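call fold(seq) -> tokens
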Amino acid sequence: MAEKQKIKKKLAEEIEVPSNINATLTKEEIIMKKDNEEVRKKLNKKIKVELQGNKIILGSDKSTKKEKKLFGSMIAHINNMIEGLNTKFKYKLQVASVHFPVTLTHDKNTNELIVKNFLGERKERKIKLIPGVDIKINKDIIEVESASIEKAGQVAADIEKGTKVRNRDRRIFQDGIFITEKPGRVFL
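ret:
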């Protein structure tokens, strides 16, 4: 009897880079620039990446489950890089203060968000921000913008985590800063 052989197809994909974005490739990462914005992404060794003209060619010799997942993720990352350079990713956060009025300031020298009078605390909470992310404070709404979706999401998560209520009943103390809007989703 003849044994069944599994035929493995090679994975391949071409992504066209717009003419207003400069893409460069090193051994370890892909770098895309537009005007004064720059986005970097580390490459996985299992996925082959080539740059030919204005096209990024991705390929993989194997097509196992793991390679397919990595391949799909890399395509999504590159598309997010292109989208982020054309239109920045925006997250919105809402300040919810039930007990004490919260004051927010952005210290540009140390790149920190300072939360004063949170739950009546005398010590101010300082939340370190990642470079390359713009933050706008409008009364009780915080807008986080960046060309990199990972950086914008991380800063929004850090702000939410920095105002977490501890050692109190969450049913009563519902104060905090919460994500209300992110790319593709709106929470109400």
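The chain has two domains: 11-86, 89-186.
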